[in-house]
Amino acid sequence: MRVASQYLRAAVVCLAALPLTTACGSGIVASREAASGAELYQSCESCHGPAGGGDLVQHAPAIAGLPAWYVASQLERFQTGLRGKHPDDVEGLRMRPMSLQVNSQTQRETVAAYVASLPSAANAPRLKDVDLTRGEETFAMCVACHGMKGEGTEALNAPPLAGLDDWYVALQLRKFRSGIRGSVPGDGIGPTMAAMSMAVPPEVIEDVAAYVHTLPR
Ligand code: HEC
Ligand code: HEC
Description:
Helix content: 40-55%
Structural class: mainly alpha
Number of helices: 12
Largest sheet: none
Bound molecules: heme C
Shape: globular
Number of domains: 3
């Protein structure tokens, strides 16, 4: 395990520094391709935590237990710049270079399966002075895609919302509303949500974010 992780770290440095030069033998690249999800996840721990519980200081959300399809798709979206490239997207710009640590489909799917396997646990609520009743009423607009229980609908590319960090949901709704997320031309997925976000008035954002946080994961 220790040997494997040292090897992995060497590969990470190597890939970051000189992607395609002879200094980085194809053997090392191949070993990263064969790395386990736990090994690949080591490069995520500093922000998302060893158990995937997230880190409020870094504004990195809890990701443990998110479905593999969604994690893999978002990693690809960060990589291709469909997400996290807007100059005002402070948190996305932090995440985007990290997505390049898992830049093949195999690596994305491997680390996504690992994230999905981590037991999900909702963090304590952070938003204050919220109106959960108003949040629940607003959530009626979301169920068509995100499901009655906020469980998500893969066929619509709509992720689960249940139990997500309340501060994170509010932040994302503001990003969608202001065009920081979901506004890249040619994106077939983000604009759907960006349009929906316009139906949530700013003063209700925290209510609905707090409400979805209360839904069991
Ligand atoms: C330097 C800190 C940092 C590291 C390291 C990092 N992330 Fe992130 N990650 C973030 C931040 C910040 C966000 C929130 C981005 C936003 O607000 O749009 C994020 C968002 C995400 C999301 C989107 C969650 C959602 O609900 O849409 C996924 C998935 C993710 N990260 C996976 C990973 C994986 C897998 C790794 C390791 C390969 C990783 N991250 C490494 C900071 C980091
Ligand atoms: C028409 C379908 C649709 C409806 C209705 C909808 N959404 Fe979404 N939502 C999506 C899709 C698709 C995504 C994925 C966007 C992406 O990958 O960039 C998404 C993503 C999100 C995210 C980002 C989650 C994350 O982990 O980063 C949040 C938060 C969200 N929606 C909240 C809501 C709320 C709250 C409502 C109701 C007010 C709502 N959505 C209604 C389709 C929808």
